[in-house]
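Worked example 3. Consider a protein that binds shikimate-3-phosphate.
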Amino acid sequence: MDFLLQAGGQMRGTARVPGDKSISHRSIMLGAIADGVTTVDGFLEGDDALSTLNALRAMGVEIDGPENGRVVIHGVGRDGLKAPVGELYVGNSGTSMRLLAGLLAGQKFDVTMTGDVSLSKRPMERVAKPLREMGAVVETAEGGRPPLTLRGGQSLKAIDYVLPMASAQVKSCVLLAGLYADGETSTTEPAPTRDHSERMLRGFGYQVEVDGPVAKLKGGGRLSAIHIDVPADISSAAFFMVAASITPNADLTLEHVGINPTRVGVINILRAMGGDIRVFNEREVGGEPVADIRICHAQLKGINIPEDQVPLAIDEFPVLFVAAACAEGQTVLTGAEELRVKESDRIQVMADGLQAMGISAVPTEDGIVIQGGQITGATVESHHDHRIAMSFAVASLRARDPIRVRGCDNVATSFPNFVSLAAGLGMNIEVQV
Ligand SMILES: O=C(O)C1=C[C@@H](OP(=O)(O)O)[C@@H](O)[C@H](O)C1
Ligand SMILES: C=C(OP(=O)(O)O)C(=O)O
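Given these inputs, the predicted complex is written out as structure tokens:
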């Protein structure tokens, strides 16, 4: 499926983007091993979160829905998961594979997880290593890639794990394994990463101590079912924050967006570039901060992106590169080598696409240098990466000629209604099968 975009368009109105992907994954995993019935509202009905849901169903957890964002999870308790029949296929979802590895490392049964072509190329050694240190038996294919197999019946011991990279997936994996380990497990991260696991575990009544970069929990406790209200995903909102920032006359309000401090890099970076972004109606919903956000058009300027913002905006860089392409002057990103191991090599793939659109975009080992300019028309490849597809679609708002983005089926990974929502706000987007 391709996106075909006419050049120009508007960005006006009010919208609520779908539920947060990271929080949706975690709601299913923790709800599944809790005692009692967990209800979730605002669940992301995207393929990635559904991969996690289907995996837990395959391990004997009764789950109703999703229906209009509502999911009901009949928790089986910490030791109630059952061996799945066959392999667990988690599609495109790195979060499913890495977090489930932690949750399943201490179970009594064997599990093998597989993924699609993109996930099958992504590094799993980063979770296999700490799990092995805890006593798990973890097998990966050559080069530490999926499939990933966990041998059941191991007793796990707590570790103090210093993360070699800023990764919430690795941190969460170790903490989830720590639930089943003997003693107190701690993680130390090199820079702040999303803390949804720590917040949600606490919501389920599990004690997690956080002291700066260190998160700690003791194994052996139990989780009690709760109600979870999932905020709109700031990573999905980001496409429209950039869209409105670059589109003349834009005035857009995005409702109920999660503004967890570990996720707001996109707001900080756009503001540093001169973006007109107002955050209001700040409130807390189920342990996560939420707000409405109004974005108006502004002339952006190029900046050197501060490296401390990188983990706080890690999934938003593809669309931030489009903002940089529309800015006056040069934008420089460094310290972002993690972008090369996402659903695609997001540095190379964005550089290729922006160059095809007439923009000077020079990849570096750990980032990119982008010179603002006139976006031309082009046919570009998404490389089946949802965030790349949506980012190139946003670029059409400032293009001179039509843009075709090839291979866009994967937007359903994180943002199933992207096309209708974007069209409703004024983007000239249509789908070609
Ligand atoms: O924990 C999570 O839910 C996620 C963490 C990030 O990955 P890393 O941990 O690899 O940085 C992010 O890119 C991913 O989309 C979701
Ligand atoms: C990197 C992403 O997700 P995951 O690692 O779960 O595949 C993403 O959604 O941008």
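Take a moment to read the result before moving on. The pocket of shikimate-3-phosphate (ligand 1) is lined by residues 22, 95, 167-169, 172, 194, 314-315, 338 (CB under 6 Å). The chain has a mean pLDDT of 98.
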